[in-house]
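The data are passed on as follows:
___
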Amino acid sequence: MLLRISCALAMGLVVGCSRHAANPKNVVKDPVCLSGGNAEVVIAPRAPSSVRFAACEMTNFLSRVFGCPVPVATAPSEGKTPIFLGASTWNEAAGVTTNGLVRDAFRVRIDADAIRIVGIDDPAGAGILASAPKTDMPVGFSDTERATLFGVYEFLERYAGVRLYFPGEIGEIVPRKDVLQLPVTEFSVAPEFTVRNVYMQGDGEWYEPEGADPHTKKAARKALSWSRLRLQTEYIPCCHGQCRNGFLKRFGRSHPEYFALLKGPDGKLHRDCEPLMRNCYKSPSYYYLCQSSGMWDALYDDAVRYFRDHDREVARYGHVRGWKYIDVMCEDGFRPCQCALCKAAYDNSQPHGQYATELVWNQSIRLANRLKAAGIPGYVTQMAYTPYHNLPKADIPDNLLVMVAERGPWSNGCPDKRARDDAEIRAWAEKCGHKVWIWNYITKWSGLAMPGVPQMTPKAIGAYYRAVAPYIFGAFAESGSDKAIYQYLNYYVFAKMCWNTRTDVDALLDEHYRLMFGAAAPEMKSFYESLEDKWINRVAGNTVDSPVGPVPVPPNDRELWMDIYSTQVIAWYDSLFDRALAKVPAGSLEARRLAFFRREFVDPLRHKADLVSVESELKRRSARPNRSVIDNGEFDSLDGWKLETSHGSGTMSIDRDVFVSGGSSLKVAMSNHVSVVQSIPGKIVPGRRYRLSYFLKTENMVPLNKNGQVSMEFFNGKWQFFPRGGSDLGTADWFHRCYEFTAQDLPKEPAKLPIFRIFFTNCKGTFWVDGLRVEEIVE
């Protein structure tokens, strides 16, 4: 029972979806008939920006549903059925107000003579919505309340059959109807999760062209999608907050003991505020603090000032809403301070290497208790994060809110890891005595940065948040992708689960396939489910056997394009789309959708697979003039190459029995850290674009630990890696590698001439290289 009670006991957060019937005696009344001829959207003359935008959305979609314009007015007209939006004298006179509604909740009432939709809206609307001459459009992501807008989307979805998967005709379902038969009813809806956050701003290429009209700008379209998904309107900060208070500038000279004692580039210990250490970082705001120092007292002083300033703002303006938080999370990539106090506080017996658990949490608890004892309202936020992820021994005060970082939905492919993560979330909720919130990862950054590969995983997302719902009041799903369209169905399911964790995701997806693709739904369901299976089980959940057991390793390009997304798989995808197109009328909206998704999803896969193909590359080389500045196409000798070893051993030779073309290749048998190097003086021009291309064959290449990898490196003033973080492990026949890069400025030191290096670290086995070329890209 405890875990099903919201954190609202401590902080007033939303926990559940509520619906209140207006007809408790089940008296059947005639339905309200709404049509294009009698519908009218009515808002107050000085309605907030969010309500004006809600009116734009309502009239836009109802006009498309009815096939005729639905006007917007600032007063009801005779003979019309008004749709009153937002707080107004008309709605107040009818008793439809925001009383009792929590943040983001809304109330809908349908009577015979009027439709009323009301939620709490920011009176100014500054930050999220900006006025334009004829409409209002979202232009950002802020804490502006806009619950009436959420009520509009609920009405359109529930009664008009509108579905908003992503902005634009392709992603919008707007059924054509002459009349809407509406029940006489009243209900209110609140989201189950207060925190409903994704990193949509980090999504890359947009699927629509940008034009001069600001409505077409990528940022505006993302903000529109954010609003239509009904994502959060309140941000609870918990992300590396210790470095957001300007301590380096404020205390770098006066209190160097506040900063972590770390090993510097000279091998000696220095405080992280010293100039020698600052030169190691690109950002002046990126620094590490000593968790045993008086900097926690400085954080306390900052918290007192912040909360009191907030109270003055409330007193002055009267409309400042929401709760107050101070984020004390440590900087990312925690580096252990080497001072005596910190070293004494580290506990190396903590499971999974969480040695700083007691130190960080005891300090956070102490800060929260000091604020509580002083009678200062507000909340301290701290994340359970490496290396302080475990439960502390001390009790958690109710003004310390805990965010737990776990891998999230993509851990479905690693059942043991998933079970441990879920147990940790539950344990933290039990420790706190109320729900926590979580940070998850559905992002294609880092090792999963695989351009052109769709990470479409809606079923895994639905299953994950349903499983952890009893223990959380929300989630930040750190997303981000090379193509925004790759996330659309992930975001749609995530948002639906945030509002109602009992959502039937299978039914939701079947509806999506049917509404989007009509008769072609079965083929598209097979396509989407294949994408999800491959990502969850072959990409994000991939493991490689090593001497220390199974090691999680994201697939490299060879595995991706010769196995997971082989030419045979892509041919099957093409056959699905061919069959799907045959089932829908030519030129129909369904046919245009199929063409869109083939272009956005299948064509990038085909292009990437073609780059790995040996046959395709040989054909390309024979068809074009050779513009190589470096060409070791045949490897008929070892001239210019040398073998370098570091903590390992290896041999290098010319193999005249194994090759792609020309009769020989470079063979290296190695263990642990080995690289083969060639200097290339005077052939690379800074600022010009080049194409690095070669063929690679591997045999029994296995990692010695989780950091085992293979990469091609180019040094021309600084190292460039191809692929960055990739690993060509295992056994594979010849495949092609290809990368483009811009040459950097040449180094001044003669000893650091431009060089290529094929680098192997923390692994062993045998590999062959053939056909190495560097070509200047000529437009």
About this structure: The radius of gyration is 30 Å.
